[in-house]
Amino acid sequence: MSGDDHRRQAVPDDGRDDVREIPVSDGSSAEHKEWLKEVRGWLVVLATLAASVTYQAGQNPPSGVWQHSSGHLASNPVLHDGKFVRRYLTFYYFNATAFATSLVIIILLLNERFYKSEAKVAALTLTTMVDPMSLVGAYIAGSTRDMANSIYIIVLTCFLFVCVVYIARYVVLTCFLFVCVVYIARYVVQGWLLLTEHMKKRVEAAKERERKEGKQRERDKHAKTRRSRCFSCNCCACCRAFEYDDIESRGLPKTEDN
């Protein structure tokens, strides 16, 4: 009987303490096995994808291969024969490492008994870490020829890795808060959010105040436009009409001169 399904407990027997093995159902062990099974499936999928990508990149390296033998060897990588031979070698070794580690991960995950030993689990963890690092190194070496761009990609990858690890710890809480915010925003837009009468009155008063201020600004703007017209002289009826309009807009009493 395995240790996961049994626990050793002291059971009194005729006045003496006799240690027996009693089967105890362990829910956490079942959950752990289910989690391992799920993680194992995801790792197999990712390792298969990485193996496919690295195999294709090895057959068709960056910049392609020479199609003719005039001055070059046909099917030889173009990047290898140029001045960026170190870049090609870096890409080659990183890509080969990623391809090999992907195959190793797939083979190790096929055996369910592999998780029984801590040393084997540590080896799997190390291999899983080497695989994405090799993929990033191959991408950097094959996608750019500038050292500044390479450093930028390295820094960006490290930053995103830290962000993903940090967010994963609080992903449940983050998703819950996001869903709550979405639902509350929907209710607010549709007008279903419960409001008190005092809050409604304050909102209506604010809207009314905004309408009055808008009308006042329109009147002031219109009056300023009329005052800017020329009505300094009384040579014609048109000028006096402008003057009367200005007096009325400002609320001044009319005089005999006006």
TrEMBL record:
Listed InterPro entries: PGG_dom
Keyword Cell membrane attached: no
Entry keyword set: Membrane, Transmembrane, Transmembrane helix
GO cellular component: membrane
Transmembrane regions listed in the UniProt entry: 91-110, 122-141, 147-168, 175-195
Domain PGG stretches: 33-145
Keyword Glycosyltransferase: no
Region Disordered, residue ranges: 1-26
One Pfam family cited in the UniProt record for this chain: PGG
Name of the molecule in the record: PGG domain-containing protein
Taxonomic lineage from the root: Eukaryota, Viridiplantae, Streptophyta, Embryophyta, Tracheophyta
